Amino acid sequence: MKKPVKVAITGAAGQIAYSLIFRIASGSMLGPDQPVILQLLEVPVPEVLEKLKGTVMEIDDCAFPLVHGVEIHSDPMAGFEGTDYALLVGARPRGPGMERKDLLTANGGIFGPQGKALAAKANKDVRVLVVGNPANTNALIAATAAARGGLDPKQFHAMVRLDHNRAVSQLATKTGAHNTEIEKMIVWGNHSSTQYPDLSHCTVRGKPAKSLVDQAWIEKEFIPTVQQRGAAIIKARGLSSAASAASAAVDHMRDWVLGTNGKWVSMGVPSDGSYGIKPGVVYGYPCICKNGQYEIVQGLSIDAFSRARMDATDTELREERAAIEDLLKA
Ligand code: NAX
């Protein structure tokens, strides 16, 4: 039996975590032979911590073979002690009348200290996935704070995998293929309505996707449906995506840690100049993972249609960055 690893989850009493925790505990994320110690973090509010105790009672009641400990924390300095994998799900939601800048700043107050605590307390090889919105900029804030404590910004990713999975599913339905027959899907940029799901390099059963669907469908249905899927779920369910978000987080971390066997997945990673996206934002790119490391897929041709959309989502990320620039220096 392998040595247990520590997995921290913030927002542990929230709805995504209610699905995520049980998937991790059952071995879906790190494999059926990897024991885990769960570090569950929440805000120091008695009712919230009480609710989290209920979730822990249910974890106990599952008698999971892989679970070797469950901790509850409300201080990141204690909660990230020895953490190997962190899923930062808890975030400040947009309140009534709250401007975008206020939302970004409020989240900076959460993700800056969490980045600092991860650098101070977590395993030096920790891998961090930011799910809480605005995920890309929250990841930038956490990575910047953690870099001052010695971690590499490449250890911090933002989740665009839900968008990637939604895009795969839409294309599979349209072409009558199975999800597993879709390859080389890309979601570029921000996890927001400016994201760009790109079929330019995508294949369906080995054939170019663009030979199977027409441009009008791509522009009028595929791209808007994927971009607006979160809002459509809220309209139908009365609540935002939770189980699908948890499933995407499991997919992202599993692929990062265990590898993608040459397959492409979309990951929000620090921009490094690839495809003309200057350093300074966390941007959705096509990635391949091997031996616990990711690499941005290089050498893809970018046509004018894609260029315009990739730049538009980059512009939005630079605007988000400008709104919290002072927090990056703090
Ligand atoms: P919930 O409101 O159900 O739960 C969030 C939990 O986070 C709450 O229990 C809250 O007390 C906790 N929290 C807040 N600040 C915290 C802190 N500093 N430390 C620890 N816990 C803290 O939201 P849920 O539906 O679970 O969604 C969580 C986040 O995921 C939201 O920001 C949401 O917008 C985001 N999403 C991101 C997605 C993505 O693809 N990147 C998709 C799904 C989701 O919309």
From TrEMBL:
<keyword id="KW-0560">Oxidoreductase</keyword>
<feature type="binding site">
    <location>
        <begin position="11"/>
        <end position="17"/>
    </location>
    <ligand>
        <name>NAD(+)</name>
    </ligand>
</feature>
<dbReference type="InterPro" id="IPR036291">
    <property type="entry name" value="NAD(P)-bd_dom_sf"/>
</dbReference>
<protein>
    <recommendedName>
        <fullName>Malate dehydrogenase</fullName>
        <ecNumber>1.1.1.37</ecNumber>
    </recommendedName>
</protein>
<comment type="similarity">
    <text>Belongs to the LDH/MDH superfamily. MDH type 2 family.</text>
</comment>
<dbReference type="GO" id="GO:0030060">
    <property type="term" value="F:L-malate dehydrogenase (NAD+) activity"/>
</dbReference>
<feature type="binding site">
    <location>
        <position position="94"/>
    </location>
    <ligand>
        <name>substrate</name>
    </ligand>
</feature>
<keyword id="KW-0520">NAD</keyword>
<dbReference type="Pfam" id="PF00056">
    <property type="entry name" value="Ldh_1_N"/>
</dbReference>
<feature type="binding site">
    <location>
        <position position="133"/>
    </location>
    <ligand>
        <name>substrate</name>
    </ligand>
</feature>
<feature type="domain" description="Lactate/malate dehydrogenase C-terminal">
    <location>
        <begin position="161"/>
        <end position="322"/>
    </location>
</feature>
<feature type="active site" description="Proton acceptor">
    <location>
        <position position="191"/>
    </location>
</feature>
<feature type="binding site">
    <location>
        <begin position="131"/>
        <end position="133"/>
    </location>
    <ligand>
        <name>NAD(+)</name>
    </ligand>
</feature>
<feature type="binding site">
    <location>
        <position position="166"/>
    </location>
    <ligand>
        <name>substrate</name>
    </ligand>
</feature>
<dbReference type="InterPro" id="IPR022383">
    <property type="entry name" value="Lactate/malate_DH_C"/>
</dbReference>
<dbReference type="InterPro" id="IPR001236">
    <property type="entry name" value="Lactate/malate_DH_N"/>
</dbReference>
<dbReference type="InterPro" id="IPR010945">
    <property type="entry name" value="Malate_DH_type2"/>
</dbReference>
<feature type="binding site">
    <location>
        <position position="107"/>
    </location>
    <ligand>
        <name>NAD(+)</name>
    </ligand>
</feature>
<feature type="binding site">
    <location>
        <position position="100"/>
    </location>
    <ligand>
        <name>substrate</name>
    </ligand>
</feature>
<dbReference type="Pfam" id="PF02866">
    <property type="entry name" value="Ldh_1_C"/>
</dbReference>
<dbReference type="InterPro" id="IPR001557">
    <property type="entry name" value="L-lactate/malate_DH"/>
</dbReference>
<keyword id="KW-0816">Tricarboxylic acid cycle</keyword>
<feature type="binding site">
    <location>
        <position position="114"/>
    </location>
    <ligand>
        <name>NAD(+)</name>
    </ligand>
</feature>
<dbReference type="InterPro" id="IPR015955">
    <property type="entry name" value="Lactate_DH/Glyco_Ohase_4_C"/>
</dbReference>
<comment type="function">
    <text>Catalyzes the reversible oxidation of malate to oxaloacetate.</text>
</comment>
<feature type="domain" description="Lactate/malate dehydrogenase N-terminal">
    <location>
        <begin position="5"/>
        <end position="146"/>
    </location>
</feature>
